What does this fold into?
Amino acid sequence: MDTTLKTSIWQQFGAAIDMLNDAISLCPDHLWTAVLWKDPDDVQYGQFWFVAYHTLFWLDLYLTGYSDGFAPPAPFIRGKLPEKPYTKDQIRTYLDQCRRKCQATIEALTDEKARQRCTFDWVEASFLEMQLYNMRHVQEHAGQLNLLLGQHDVSGMDWVTKARDKAG
Amino acid sequence: MFRVWIGLQRPETKLADTPMDTNLKTSIWQQFGASIDYLADTLSACPDQLWLASLWLTPNAKPERAQFWYVVYHTLFWLDLYLTGAEEGFLPPAPFTLIEQDGDDPLPERVYTKDELQAYLNDCHKKCQATIEALTDETAHRHCRFGWGECSFLELLLYNMRHVHGHASQLNMLLGQKVGPQPDYVTQAKNEAS
It folds into this structure.
């Protein structure tokens, strides 16, 4: 696979993950359960910690490429809310794992793998397209989490242009 | 929509002559187009009373910079410019100006209307699709330089997509906070701009 393509995807995908990392790192304790939007099913689905977890869960799953049999690493559970919110340390550890997995997945990408079909109920695409979809999904929630911080007078957030050399 | 490449690449083929991988073009357009469609849906859904609403607090900047209409304009300006690939020589269509590139941090002389921004968005949508459709290995590798760094034109497309999507999601969230259910996430590019 073309090196420019791999470099381009990693630099931008990594930058989106780094923006998510910044939002999580900058979130003060009192905003960890702040509500981004009102979710009709359960208020926790719209809280800062859960939106961060949701983003990482799908980042991990889409990097795997399929849903059947996928399970996040402990202590995370699939399909239901935990008894209490995951902690910032737990979420940051998961982010570091996902970041490494993302870089390794892109580095190992072949033309054959890039063309592999991925099927979900809401989208069917090549593995390559799914990674761009994945990048957009990470950027979506990173932008929203950063916006929530900006609405609460937290400073320090900035646009990340390229992936950093190391996880923050 | 895209030319299908069925031939084998000849050993002597130059970079400039090499057709781009169809899967790559399709992937980029489907996702980039979806981000633009998401911005279009969010722009359309904005009620008049939120056109000047602020997305975030601006203790160290002009408050207009955080208003709904200006964030849309900022997103479209850079979408257009990055599709061009260079700041030098770029000029947005009338009535828009080069204000985003002015280091003195000026503001437009007036608030742009929703109709004006929707028309600009439709132009950018067409330009984006045409740019990706015309992409060759040579143009993908073209080196681009900006104040924030350097990258290939291919990477700039992904950067641009991320920038559009980041702001679309923030605008969408503001609508969700102020008026309730917001436009759905767009999974792949729609066939035509709305």
Observations:
- Chain A touches chain B at residues 2, 4-5, 7-9, 11-12, 15-16, 19, 36-37, 111, 114-115, 122-123, 125-126, 128-129, 132-133, 135-136, 139-144, 147, 150-151, 153, 159, 161-162 (CB under 8 Å).
